[in-house]
């Protein structure tokens, strides 16, 4: 269906320059969406014919007609080239700015550039890395169909279904991976809607895969003991070992370890050391009494110079291989990842009988449900809770636990 296209020129009689003239503006209207730009022409208010939208001076009016003709020709050219034109896109072309992408992969590349700039600004590349991976999935899917790119106007729910099937069958991806890929595809569709390239997101009703309950992997007490008893000769691996242990005992994420300064460490009136710090991810303050081993690790690093962080840590991206290598060296069977240390803290804390509320405060969670997801309740803890319930019931009934 052809778009409704209108060009309307007008002046603002309230904004008159010192020489008595005012600017002539052009309003572009396509499918009810509008964009305004200046024509570069000026006239006196009394020389403007509002009924015809013309300047009474023949010379300036011929220039205005030439401008209108350029607008119409540009619109027709864009419609022929791209098949879709919005008021914002037409304005961008007329004022000579960088053209708005109108294909799927081109839109994704532009979004990746924006995310790369954001990653540099905030010092975290995780979102950019994930998005780059999802963009690669789209590119390979299009290549499997013999296509280099897809015009956004051809984006349909059927395309989304085919993409999902490709990830599930040909690539054998997990439901969570498929959902992350669909999220990226939807993101590009909504960008197109925001730029008025699409009237609506055709993927809105595309169902996501059923989510598998999260399985937060925590290391066992035996693996933790292996790490404690295997200091490393390599200074870099030894630093990573200590940091992993410190996270297991405090629940601090790597980003929070990087931004830990001496001012975040204090002592209670009883001489107990603690960390009080706002988490970078949630902006929730965490309060963490320190385990003796965590205090020993702290004593090896900066505790006095508040202009420098406590630990000499580099970017998180650089430790992925090293943390995996450390796990192999100490004999941990599963692939070791740094975030397992935070999961381990939650699991060990709840196994030790700490309340969910206390763990949430230490981990800097905004709500208890998040804590329950991190802190897996072990079979041992379930058995202990049941024994406690039986004893409580026995006391209330005045009977021994054996008779209950």
Structure explained in plain terms:
The chain folds into three domains: 5-94, no CATH class; 104-194, DNA polymerase, domain 1 (Orthogonal Bundle); 221-384, Intergrase catalytic core (hpI Integrase, Chain A). The strands form three sheets. A three-stranded antiparallel beta sheet has the order 1-2-3. It has a three-stranded antiparallel beta sheet with strand order 6-7-8. The chain has helices at 58-82, 87-94, 104-122, 126-144, 157-170, 175-194, 221-228, 235-250, 254-258, 292-298, 320-330, 340-351, 356-363, 368-374, 379-397, and strands at 5-11, 22-30, 33-43, 48-49, 54-55, 265-267, 273-278, 285-289. It has 404 residues and is mainly α. The model is unreliable at 400-404 (pLDDT under 50).
Q: How many domains?
A: 3
The 3D shape can be described as: elongated
Biggest pleated sheet:
3 strands, antiparallel
Structural class: mainly alpha
Amino- and carboxy-terminal Cα gap:
77 Å
Q: Could you please say which CATH topology of the largest domain applies here?
A: hpI Integrase, Chain A
Strand order, largest beta sheet: 1-2-3
How many β-strand runs? Answer: 8
CATH architecture of the largest domain: Orthogonal Bundle
- Count of runs of 4 or more consecutive helical residues: 15
Estimate percent helicity.
40-55%
Give me the Rg, rounded. Answer: 31 Å
Quote the beta fraction.
Answer: 5-15%
* CATH superfamily grouping of the largest domain: Intergrase catalytic core
CATH class membership of the largest domain: Mainly Alpha
What's the average pLDDT? 85
Uncertain segments are 400-404
Compressed to H and E, one letter per element, the order equals: EEEEEHHHHHHHHHEEEHHHHHH
